[in-house]
Amino acid sequence: MKTNIKKKYKFQSEIKKLLHIMIHSLYSNKEIFIRELISNASDAIDKLKFKYISKPEKYINNKKMYIRIKINKKKKKISIQDNGIGMTKKETIKNLGTIAKSGTKKFISSMKKKKKNNKLIGKFGVGFYSSFIVSKLVQVKTKKSLKKKKKPILWESKGKGKYSISYTKKKKYGTKVTLKIKKKEKIFLESWKIKNIIKKYSDHISTPIEIYKYDEKNKKYFWEKINKAKSLWTLNKNKITKKQYKNFYKYISNDNLNPMIWIHNKIEGNITYISLLYIPKKYNINIWNKKNKNGLKLYINRIYIMNNAKIFIPNYLRFIKGILDSQNLPLNISREILQNNNIVNKIKINLTKKILNMLKELTNKKKKYEKFWKEFGIILKEGPAEDLENKKKICNLLRFASFKNKTEKQNLSFKKYIKNMQKNQKKIFFFTCDNYKIGIKSPHLEIFKKKNIDVLILSDKIDEWMMNNIKEIKGIKLQSISKLNNTLKNIINENNITNNKKNKKFIKKIKKILKNKIKNVYLSKRLTKTPAIVISDDKDISTQMSKLFIAAGQNIKPLKYIFEINIKHKIIKYIKNINNIKIFKKWIKILFYQALLMERGTLENPNKYIKNINKLLILNYIK
Ligand code: ADP
Ligand code: MG
Questions:
Q1: Residue 84 Cα to ligand 2 middle (Å)
Q2: CA distances from 417 to 59, 340, 411, 425, 465 (A)
């Protein structure tokens, strides 16, 4: 037998570079070495399990797989041990002395591309070598599973360009990595610290992760399991109960309510991933918060990568929570890398489709969908502008209030609106306002009520913008009823009213009084209860839009409206015959500001308006 001498090797030059970068740049995220070593141990166990599948005769029933962590504070050592596949001498040299095909190699190539971008590094999974960030010395004892003749190997390195290999004694199969922790990193010898790191990154590793602990009561050591050791999403759908799904949701979302619905999918093929997506029951204010922590969690092969992987879900679906576990993405992924990744884009397209389909199905459950819409409709309304690909699908999911629908609830779809359109109705009419209760009473609606043509009542801030983005549904154009164009003129049938002489004179008089406050004056028959309204010109922005601009602090010119007068109204008939020009003027001004107040909900100078009214009241009633 050969004597066991330590043989010295040099690291590949690239590894030397890597070690240098890592030790000098990863100061902010040192703790990830635990994640990396556990991830390797977990891989090794998966590999062994896979071997067992192909060699059932070697399968030892009830063989307990584990990842075990032992801390020795005195000796400043921490060890991570697995009973996975292990390595032969040849494999050890190859895997720990040269750059393996996977993780580490990609890290290096991206480091080359983005020279010295230190900020990036902290986000990487950097593999086995990250153990040198906190260690003076790293020892790996490993024994190859299922190969009795292979001798156990001891690999040792101080991370300074060289490593050594010798034979050693090791009874059990698998690998034990022991780190001699640097003095200034002694925090990693605290078991609470290690536990926290494991909880944070590796809770869903399916193998139990155990830590060696002293039981004060029974005066003996035992292995305490730290992780949940169950990746629910990897289980077969029909093996998971509703209750389990619900509990899991609460766990990942920090929500104390159950979810509304969920979908769980396994996609295999070019891109392999599992997604478990939930819609919460209630809106959470964090949806608007950029740091919304509990969105979609990204795992790669059950290893936790990041918390709010926004990039996989379009913004207008940001209420979705859940898990994405992909096999195609490299562990060393960063948010920056995710941004231009083809696989990411494909997954995003698929997830979006899945979610929209889930919502489509939910529309069949009226009550449930109403609840969903009440909570998240306002977010979904961003969809038509954001996602042109799926615009049609999103539009089918939109719900509205309308005057014929007779409820403040938004539960009318475009489809139903179109089905109930009048025979010669060529457009979908909508009216934007501050709230439903005011909107439903607006004089703009009078003619539509009279003709029994339905109008969507839109009272969310985003509505006007959304409708402008949708433009048409199934070839039917959307039309705001507070903007005067030809379609509306046809509906309200007021083109030819002004022809008679007396009316023409009346209009002229009004125009003279309101001169630069208005665009034009029309006489109309369309109003029933209201003497006068103002309406926007088709070329101008609408009232709601101008209010949004003003609210956003933009300096815009005051809107000039078209002043529309109800020729059949008692007041108008009365005014028409007033000869005293002073009193006539007062009446017209009151009518105009009244109309403006109805349209905008506020007046620039309410005092003046009220003074004018009072003057008229006194004139007429108080002698
Ligand atoms: P990666 O995990 O991305 O391949 P690492 O640097 O983390 O890169 O590990 C390099 C290689 O070393 C692994 O691919 C694996 O073959 C081997 N290895 C590391 N740790 C273990 C272990 N605990 N058991 C068996 N093999 C391991
Ligand atoms: Mg690894």
A1: 14
A2: 64, 41, 11, 11, 20
Answer whether 0.85 is exceeded by the pTM.
Answer: no
DSSP state of 434: S
CATH number at residue 343: 3.30.230.80
- Rounded to the nearest whole angstrom, what is the distance from the C-alpha of residue 213 to the centroid of ligand 2? 26
What torsion, rounded to 10 degrees, do the Cα atoms 213, 216, 220, 222 define?
A: -30
Residue 429 corresponds to which tokens in the numbers above?
């009419």
Domain boundary among the residues 460, 481, 502 is at: 481
| Residue 308 located in a structural domain | yes
Residue 530: inside a domain, yes or no?
Answer: yes
Mean pLDDT of 438-455: 93
My answer on whether 139 and 43 are in the same domain is yes
Q: What is the mean pLDDT of residues 137-148?
A: 94
Q: Is the pLDDT of residue 373 over 50?
A: yes
In this structure, the answer to whether residues 296 and 150 fall within a common structural domain is no
Residues measured by CB to lie within 5 Å of ligand 2, the ion: 40, 127
Residue 178 Cβ contacting ligand 1 at under 6 Å:
no
d(CA 348, CA 325) in angstroms, rounded, equals 13
* Whether residues 58 and 32 fall in one domain: yes
Residues 6+ apart with CB under 8 A from 210: 66, 67, 68, 69, 223, 224, 225, 226
* Burial call 133-159: b when 16+ CB within 10 Å, e when fewer: bbbebbbbbbbbbeeeebebbbbbbeb
Out of 4-13, 101-110, 190-199, 511-520, which region has the weakest mean confidence (pLDDT)?
101-110
Greatest C-alpha distance within the chain: 130
Q: What is the CATH number of the domain that holds 178?
A: 3.30.565.10
Tell me which of 35, 38, 95, 146 to substitute to probe ligand 1's pocket, judged by most ligand atoms within 8 Å of the beta carbon: 95
Looking at the DSSP bridge assignments, the partners of residue 81 are: 68, 176
- What is the tally of structural domains in the chain? 4
How would you classify the pairing of strands 296-300 and 321-326? parallel
Please report, to the nearest 10 degrees, the dihedral formed by the alpha carbons of residues 397, 401, 403, 408 taken in order: 150
SS3 282: coil
Residue nearest to atom 3 of ligand 1 (CA): 103
Tens of pLDDT, residue by residue over 243-295, are 889 878 886 776 778 999 999 999 998 899 999 999 999 887 665 555 555 68
Beta bridge partners, 566, equal: 524
Ligand 2 center to residue 207 CA distance, Å? 16
Cβ neighbours, 10 Å, residue 291:
7
383: in domain: no
At which of 463, 481, 499 does a domain end? 481
Give the domain range for residue 598: 491-621
609 with 513, same domain?
yes
Q: Which residues contact 131 (CB under 8 A, 6 or more apart)?
A: 33, 36, 37, 138, 177, 179
